[in-house]
Amino acid sequence: MREIPWELDRSLAGYFSVLEDQRCPINRRPTLTDMIVIAIAAVLCGADGWVAIAEFGRTKQPWFAQFLELPNGILAHDTFGRVFALLQPQAFEACFRTWVASIRELIPGEIIAIDGKTLRRSHDRATGLAALHLVSAWATANRVVLGQVATDAKSNEITAIRQLLELLNIKGCIVTIDAMGCQTAIAEQIIAQGGDSLLALKGNQGTLAAEVEDAFIDADAKDDVGCDAQGLETSERGHERREIRRYRTLGDLSGVPRSAVWEGMNMIGMVESQREVAGKTSRETRFFIGSIQTEVATFARAVRDYWGVENDLHWSLDVAFREDECRVRETIARENLAVLRHIALTRLKNDGTKLGIQNKRLKAGWDERYLTKLLFEPPEPKTKTSASGTSNIRKT
User: Would you say residue 321 lies in a domain?
Assistant: First the structure.
């Protein structure tokens, strides 16, 4: 193996060198590390399936030969498919989490947003295989995927959330989950792991939802006097749209009897949104429960940052990586390919080049110096930014 400017075992690709090769010993050429490096590089550069990964490897073989062994050259796409169908997803995911931990900055109060996403084309009607459903954790300030757990049905998302939380370091962070995750066991687990929770509240907790809504009605009647209440209003304009959000928190839970069964619950929150688009006005009211105290700026930041899992993660996977169009349907291989996309997205999100994700992928494919940087150099140190990201704030 030739020398390169950085040591492979300290690079992004090097974190996967500990994986056990499940192939027959006589068929382990090229090495598993070689194939994983090629796959990561190819996905960084725009490949979205095994055919594209193999073709990228053949095209870039002289470049790969600088630091990989490649005793039999670049193998066919079906070989990549077989190798990643044998690779244990839990082990692959564990290596990914280890790499993320090495680049993640521990930020007190960071928002960790958890949400599920179904890969629409990953089902196979002929065999009765359901579409792959992934529950992922997105660290909003670090802009990294902290981990993922796969399930074959959205109905199993609650179990997947608990399994995912067990894998994460959430100490000192605020974990936000939509109404699906509004469960006493999940709230208890978050507290036990040293985090705080902010959970959206809907009809799946009907009695609690009614109590929370009534508590805000009672606080209005008292003009919030003696209710440990705070309020915050934000206004945003852009693209022929205006949106006003009114955030409220209450610390007096005497009118919420069911709060006693929720571990650490010390506040309730409400968000009233008014959106004007093309002359039409829509309104929405949402309720939350949490263990984050009543500081309304923290509540507003957590509510807004939750959408990072949709906008920064899921949207990027759909638009820049065309995840919903991927037709890889082998049970294990499709999950490992999803991990490859998370690896690539996390690395690109943590690169300071002033380009969007799609253009970064193109640049990596065109510019071998840039690809070398992505694979072998650590991400740039993060710059300190404002936590709230809100505008025209009025605190009441």
Answer: no
Burial of 177 (0-12, 13-18, 19+ CB in 10 A): buried
Q: Cα dist. 318→119, 315, 323 in Å?
A: 9, 5, 5
Question: What pTM, to 2 d.p., does this model score?
Answer: 0.87
CA distances from 356 to 91, 94, 139, 294, 379 (A): 30, 28, 19, 37, 16
DSSP run (H or E) holding 78 = helix 77-86
Range of the domain at 254: 99-313
Same domain, yes or no, for 17 and 115?
no
Closest to 83 measured CA to CA, from 8, 146, 22: 22
Please report the pLDDT score of residue 393 as a whole number.
Answer: 42
Nearest residue to 334 via CA among 164, 163, 89, 52 = 89
Give pLDDT tens digits for 212-247. 999 999 999 988 888 899 999 998 887 778 889 999
Q: Say how far apart CA 364 and CA 160 lie, in whole Å.
A: 34
Percent of the chain with pLDDT over 70: 90
Place of tokens 């700026």: 297
Q: What is the pLDDT of residues 319-341, one digit of tens each?
A: 999 988 888 878 888 999 999 99
On whether both 142 and 241 belong to a single domain, the answer is yes
Q: In this structure, how many other beta carbons lie within 10 angstroms of the beta carbon of residue 311?
A: 10
Residues 63 and 199 in one domain: no
Angle between helices 77-86 and 50-59 in degrees, nearest 10:
120
Percentage with pLDDT > 90 across the chain: 56
Burial state string for 85-114 with b = 16 or more CB within 10 A and e = fewer than 16: bebebeebbebbbebbeeebeebeebbbbb
